[in-house]
Amino acid sequence: MDHKDNGVTGASLKPDRRTVMLGALALTALPRRAAAADVAHIQRLSPAFDRMVAPDARISVVASGIRWAEGPLWVDDGRYLLFTDPPANIIRRWQTGGVATPFLSPSGTAGTDPKLVREPGANGLALDHQGRLLIANSGGRSIDRFDLVTRRREVLIDRYQGKRFNSPNDLHVARDGTIYFTDPPYGLTDGDASSLKEMPVNGVYRWTPGGAVDLIDGTLTRPNGIALSLDETRLYVSVSDDVAPRIMVYDLDKTGLPRRSRVLLDAKPMRVGGAPGLPDGMKVARDGTLVCSVPGGMMFLSPDAEPLGLISNGGPIANCAFGERGRALFLTANDRVLRVPLRAGWQDRGRPA
User: Fold this and answer.
1) I need a labelling partner for 150 at 20 to 30 A (CA). Which of 13, 87, 195, 277 fits?
2) Residue from 323, 331, 326 nearest 344 by CA
3) How far apart are CA 306 and CA 175, in angstroms?
4) What are the residues whose beta carbons fall under 8 Å from the beta carbon of 27, sequence distance 6 or more?
5) Which residue range(s) make up the domain with 37?
6) Best CA proximity match to 243, nearest among 278, 208, 286
7) CA-to-CA distance for 147 and 341, rounded, in angstroms?
8) Is residue 322 part of a domain?
9) Tens of pLDDT along 168-219?
10) Integer Cα distance of 264 and 241 in angstroms
């Protein structure tokens, strides 16, 4: 599919010299495994990291015993954390001082055949501007909307040009209500070879409140995490490709469609030595800092991909969410959910106008 068809113009998959150097810098700093007695390890890669996370910050476990923790979302109205477990088909809820309890089960679709569907549950979560829960329904192969008060659920979208999505993975809501989302085949047991797969691509899409769906990019092998910059001029997408793991950035025009794309961070050098994980979930702080999953853990990056800090726990860390009015970062780390205390107000210092 050429760039005209997939919605990307001027795309480049070749990382520039700066990207390669940044990848090498991150590689030299990556710890191979956190000490057994530690919950996780915090590593400072730049002096700028000190204003984000204190050197003596203590990381705690807020939930454990999860098959695969994903999709963290802090809900201010109620002050609680939601997170998903796609293979177990459940969303759990956690509040400060309590334990994680079931919130929605099934979170995706009940009664799927495990020979065909590997992850029947919800994956990524977000809130729309009316406070309703948006669900990347991996098993249902749709984007759903769930009212947190009435618990009424509806399918918002499940097809593009008449074909069913693969297994929507992550999503981000723009200021005007537009939803950007990724659609890899991770929820299907046989991936690209699945008999259920109708889409010829693993795409990055945009849904607008009027109901239209646009294919942003159909060239990525494994699009995964997704986020917008604060000014919504950039779209970030992680690519969980074993051979070419990377984070892409798309420059958006005034209509929210991409003008060009490029590799922001080449993560392949980070995998040398067996660092666990791949580029996965991400969030953008109010000051523009990108917090993204990479081989080795969760990395803080400047908007220009300068490595600032790394949190590792000896295993893959899939996703993250800011919470507690910016005072905490929650990490979904394999079978656990971690809480990282943040310096109060750091996201607002240096915040773009």
Assistant:
1) 87
2) 326
3) 27
4) 269, 270, 272, 273
5) 3-348
6) 278
7) 30
8) yes
9) 999 999 999 999 999 999 999 999 999 999 999 999 999 999 889 999 999 9
10) 15
Of 235, 266, 228, 265, nearest to 250 by C-alpha is 235
Where is 25: in which H helix or E strand? helix 17-29
Please name the residue that has the structure tokens 């908007």: 303
C-alpha–C-alpha distance, residues 62 and 218, integer Å:
37
pLDDT in tens, 26-41: 444 444 334 334 688 9
Residue 280: which residues within 8 A CB-CB, separation 6 or more?
224, 225, 238, 240, 292, 293, 316, 317, 318, 319
In DSSP terms, 142 is beta-bridged to 137
For residue 348, the SS3 value is helix
Q: pTM for the complete prediction?
A: 0.89
- For residue range 277-325, list pLDDT tens digits in order: 999 999 999 999 999 999 999 999 999 899 999 999 999 999 999 999 9
Q: Residue 113: which residues within 8 A CB-CB, separation 6 or more?
A: none
- What is the spatial distance between Cα 343 and Cα 133, in angstroms, rounded to a whole number? 28
CATH code of residue 344: 2.120.10.30
Picking from 282, 300, 235, 285, the residue whose alpha carbon sits closest to that of residue 262 is 235
End-to-end CA, the chain = 38
Res. 351 pLDDT band, cuts 50 70 90 = low
Tokens of 159: 């097809």
Rounded-to-integer distance, Cα 226 and Cα 208, Å:
16
146 token code pair: 């769930």
Q: What is the model's pLDDT at position 349?
A: 58
Is 168 part of any domain? yes
Task: List b or e across 162-195, with b for residues whose CB sees 16 or more CB atoms inside 10 angstroms.
Answer: eebbbbbbbbbbbeeebbbbbbbbbbbbebeebe
Q: Structurally, how many domains does the chain consist of?
A: 1
Query: Token pair for residue 237?
Result: 């997408």
Check residue 346 and give its pLDDT: 80
- Give dist(CA 58, CA 79) in Å, integer: 21
Predicted local distance difference test score (pLDDT) of residue 211: 87
Q: Tell me, yes or no, whether 164 lies in a domain.
A: yes
Is residue 353, in this structure, part of any structural domain at all?
no
DSSP 6: H
